[in-house]
């Protein structure tokens, strides 16, 4: 049975009463009803958590101790995944199928990836007369969003543990309940007190204190570009390391001669995954003008398969958007795109149901690459289709936003597709149907972020480097 009324924070190995009494309600976006609450943490709560994390930090931690901590957390988390999936579906509206799949299976794969990295990682290396040491960085402040609540937490907390760091975590207020369930797994894993601490609360209070706290050594943030900029500004005050995973406006580029049918099918699925609330979603589909009409027919047919419905219904492919704010924001983007002259192919801003934050999967054709819809992240099920003349034109459009997080290219052959991919300014790109890899470096170019998550690169973000010059 889920306990969605959370009144305590996890600090120094115990569930403790926060320093102030109020709570933040959590709303089920399918019903618009309150289903639970979490403590509205304060600066004093963050300070207590950072103190505990500092006391728990041991820079000389062994590989065996790291391995043991990681293995115990992964085992305890794995047991809880069915419950966590149900909670994610309730708190942010992901179809249960998606919650049981990508929302929980990918974090498990990501977590295991860190265990593998830890096994073979060389913490010491000889470089000439120097012994170069890789040491745990210290206290990590982790601030996460709501769209993949478990994944975002796992991508920060697990590599931090593997590196030997200690953590103060602040989840998003829109989807904190699954994170509390993850922390119960951490508790069951029996890590030393203070290694992982949880402080829920407002970004403007808890998040800002974590980012500016003088005793936090690294702040690892995932969320919007606007808040990421603020976090970096605050972190600069104490010169701490900052890792930012931010927004995207990724292009799915279908070159002339590419497999149009597959590219459209996969591309529409990618754009609408998790109701379009995916930072790496391919929200712009770039199609050769010579095949534009054919592509639009295929896109229309593919989009029609994305049935909107209740998250618990097994036939649902798109649930409600995660919150009232997201609902209003996405509808605003749709209305403005129409006013900007984009051609609505399917969908629209009208509410799909009487209650719940449901928006129809929406496709716009003839989108001006420089318009708001061509440039800005919507974070909803809205696909912009943009025609191009030739490969140079496609590259100019693909690179023509402030972002560079993800994307895809479909070429007539692998060499042509890779040659194009080399010129795209983005952190990752799926080439001719290549699949997402949970241990490949993940992160952004340009305003999509700084640093990398996942696999070895994500692990190394939490390591400091020390050179000892030895006598010859
Ligand atoms: P958000 O509004 O930026 O919030 C992210 C986190 O930051 C939340 O925990 C939020 O707390 C906190 N926060 C808000 N204001 C803060 C402040 N002044 N100082 C410190 N922390 C603060 O983003 P979101 O709406 O949750 O998530 C959607 C965005 O995340 C999209 O732009 C998406 O592209 C991006 N994203 C990026 C990636 C990636 O890996 N690149 C992955 C997923 C999502 P509250 O809950 O109190 O607001």
Question: What topology does this entry show?
Answer:
Blueprint: E1 9-11, E2 14-16, E3 23-28, E4 33-39, H1 43-56, H2 63-92, H3 96-100, H4 102-120, E5 124-127, E6 130-136, E7 139-143, H5 149-163, E8 166-170, H6 177-189, E9 196-198, H7 203-212, E10 218-222, H8 225-236, E11 241-245, E12 251-254, H9 260-272, E13 284-288, H10 292-303, H11 324-339, E14 343-346, E15 362-365, H12 372-375, E16 382-388, H13 391-398, E17 407-410, H14 414-421, E18 430-431, E19 449-450, H15 455-460, E20 463-469
Parallel strand pairs: 7-8, 7-10, 8-9, 10-11, 12-13, 12-17, 13-16, 15-16, 17-18
Antiparallel strand pairs: 1-2, 3-4, 5-6, 6-20, 11-19, 14-15
Helix pairs in contact: 1-7, 2-4, 2-5, 2-6, 4-5, 7-8, 9-10
This protein binds NADP nicotinamide-adenine-dinucleotide phosphate.
NADP nicotinamide-adenine-dinucleotide phosphate (NAP) binds at residues 143-147, 170, 172-174, 202-204, 207-208, 211, 222-224, 227, 230-231, 245-248, 279, 377, 379, 405, 444, 449.
Structure classification: alpha/beta
Top-tier CATH class of the largest domain:
Alpha Beta
Overall 3D form: globular
Task: Please mark out the parts with pLDDT under 50 across 5 or more consecutive residues, or reply none.
Answer: none
Instruction: Compute the number of helices.
Output: 15
| Overall CATH architecture of the largest domain | 3-Layer(aba) Sandwich
Spatial strand sequence of the major β-sheet: 14-15-16-13-12-17-18
How many strands appear in the DSSP assignment?
A: 20
Tally of separate domains = 2
| Largest beta-sheet characterization | 7 strands, mixed
Q: What's the CATH topology name of the largest domain?
A: Aldehyde Dehydrogenase, Chain A, domain 1
Helix percentage range = 25-40%
Radius of gyration: 22 Å
**CATH superfamily membership of the largest domain, which one?**
Aldehyde Dehydrogenase, Chain A, domain 1
Protein name: aldehyde dehydrogenase (NAD(+))
Keywords: Oxidoreductase
Catalytic activity: an aldehyde + NAD(+) + H2O = a carboxylate + NADH + 2 H(+)
Family: Belongs to the aldehyde dehydrogenase family.
